[in-house]
Structure formats: structure tokens, C-alpha cells
Amino acid sequence: MTETYEKIKWPNNARCAVMLSFDLDGNTIWANGNRSYPGGENFIRSISIGDYGPKRAVPRILDLLAKYALPATFFTPAKIVEENPALLKQIDQAGHEIGHHGYQHERFVDLTRDEQKAIILRSQDIFQQIIGKKARGYRTPSGDWSRETAGLLHELGFLYSSSMRGDDRPYRTVIDGQVTDFIEMAPKWDLDDFVQFGYNLFPAEPAGQDRISGIEQVYNNFKQEFDGYYQYGLCFVLLMHPQIIGKPGRLLMLEQLLQHMKSHQDIWFATGEEIAEWWRANY
């Protein structure tokens, strides 16, 4: 359910909100995809694409965020948290948010309610053990969730999700016919770097091939979308993957985009948790 407002009142008279988000999937999406092929567990090259994220790209991204004093949200499968505890502690200690993204990037739409609950709770225990707190935000792995997921997350105390696609403002989720204080902040495929740049020869990604977009083209797409969100006073959710956006040339593109956004004096850069808390209190 969404509501229409002539003008959203953001904190400190900001014109628009910006949520920089990174899906720190590591090798989980490639390992999951490889399982559908005989002997797929031996496809080392595709696994290495994901490994690039935590091993090489995240430190560069953290440096870039620190350079511009910007907060971000890292949605991370708990398996990647387990495998990279020092890195996740570094992200947390830098003031960024770490959000829930399944245990190993499971497709929640394929799971029963009990199976989903077990994954959520297991992952929250790992968050608690490694960074000393549970996640309050959730992004569904693999692009969808089941009819039960939102209610389950709300029941388990989550503040918000950034999973659906149906608005460009935060909104209160309707669960079992009731408007709740479980907030949704929808990202968009056209603001997802994987859709622009994600590629592997075999297993084929995308299935029909023919996709590595030009960096300038993607920059112009992202910039013009931001300009539109700014004009209408909306919530700009940029969905990125360290293994994709963290390549040297693309990171320069991201820096250029950050410079463009920061050239506006009335932008509220915030984590998902901060935006959801503010929306819950004010709308």
C-alpha cells in the first residue's frame, strides 16, 4: 500500500533522501547457480567473480565512502559474514549498516514459512556473534519473497525491507490486510549495477548474453534518474554489488555520481535503518 503526498518532508528541509546500498553477496550467487550443473561445484572461475567483492572491492568502497563522509547499508548473506568476520566488523565500525540477506542467498519464494524462519534466525545469531547486534533491515535474496515473508520479518522484529519495486518513496507494508509499521524502501532494476554490468560466459549470465554496458551510458542513466528523484523529492535507492561496482573504472563512475549528488546542498544521505526510523515516526 502506498500513499500520495504532494511533497515529502525530509529531515533538515532536505529535498530528497539517498540510500546507498551494497549487496555483499560474495560467491554465494555463483555457488547457488553452479549447483544446477553436473559438477558445478568445480566451476572455480565463476566463484572467483564473487570472491572479488569482499577480498578486493569492499576496501576500495569503504575508502570512497570515507572520502565523502557518506553512510551506506551492506546487505550481506550470513555465510559471507561468517567467512569474513574482520571485514564485516570493519564495515560496522565505520558506521555503516549491515542488513540481512539470507544465509547463503537463498530464494525465499521457494521455501516454507518454517524454512524461512530458520534461515532468518540462524543468520541473526551469526550477526549477533560477529558484529554484536542483529540486523534491522532485510533485502530479499534473488529478487523475490513468498507471501509469508513480510509478516514473518515483522513478527521477528525487523524495522524495514528494501526488496519490492512498487514505489519511489518509503511506505508502510500491508500484512494480512492491516497497515503496519514495517517499512518498505523499494530499489529498482534500473538502479541496480548487476543489471547493467553483471556478466559471465559460463554459466551464462545473463542467460541470453550480450550485456556489459558502457560505463558512461550507465553513469548517465543513474545521474538522470537521480535528477528526477531530486526534482520530485523522493527516496533514491541505489542498489550495488561490490563485485560489480568495485572494479576500478566503475568505482570512478560511482565517485563521479557521488560528486554530482553532493553538489546539491539539500540531500539527506542515510542508511536504510535511519530512513525507515524517520518514516515510521513521521508518516
Question: Can you characterise this structure?
Answer:
Residues 43-270 form the NodB homology domain. It comes from Desulforamulus aeronauticus DSM 10349. InterPro entries: Glyco_hydro/deAcase_b/a-brl, NODB_dom, PgdA-like. This protein is of the alpha/beta class and 283 residues long. The chain has one domain (11-282): TIM Barrel. Helices cover 44% and strands 14% of the residues. It contains 11 helices and 9 strands. β4, α6 (149-155) and β5 (160-161) form a beta-alpha-beta unit. α1 (28-34) runs antiparallel to α2 and α8 packs parallel to α10. The longest helix has 24 residues, at 44-67. The radius of gyration is 18 Å and the shape is globular.
Write the layout of secondary structure elements.
Blueprint (H helix, E strand, L loop, with lengths): L15 E8 L4 H7 L9 H24 L5 E4 L1 H6 L1 H9 L3 E4 L12 H19 L5 E2 L10 H7 L4 E2 L9 E5 L2 E7 L8 H5 L17 H18 L2 E6 L1 H4 L2 H15 L4 E3 L2 H11 L1
Parallel strand pairs: 1-2, 1-8, 1-9, 2-3, 4-5, 5-7
Antiparallel strand pairs: 6-7
Helix pairs in contact: 1-2, 8-10
Question: Could you write a compact summary of the structure shown?
Answer:
By secondary structure, the chain is of the alpha/beta class.
